[in-house]
Design the sequence.
């Protein structure tokens, strides 16, 4: 299984509504080979943290690559995330 953790820093202009809409749209996307999905906003306990995390598990590398290429995934990213994203960092690992 492959776990993807995406950390996101949003632009200062990003609204709570935009951020929540992104998390909901991504979570609502149907994708059979995504086994687990979480979207979390930072608790704001420190000043140096990223703003949100997306955690998703996939069956295998092929499933992850299919997710990256999925048209629905591209639509959510371009419509909801790209306008409010300042920075992103990702790590992928086997579990």
Sequence:
């Amino acid at each position: 299984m492959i776990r993807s953790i995406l950390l996101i820093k949003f632009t200062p202009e990003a609204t709570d509504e935009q951020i929540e809409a992104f998390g909901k749209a991504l979570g609502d996307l149907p994708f059979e080979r995504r086994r687990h999905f979480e979207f979390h906003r930072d608790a704001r306990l420190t000043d140096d943290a990223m703003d949100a995390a997306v955690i998703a598990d996939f069956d295998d590398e092929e499933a992850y690559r299919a997710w990256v290429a999925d048209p629905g995934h591209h639509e959510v990213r371009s419509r909801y995330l790209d306008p409010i994203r300042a920075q992103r960092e990702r790590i992928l690992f086997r579990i």
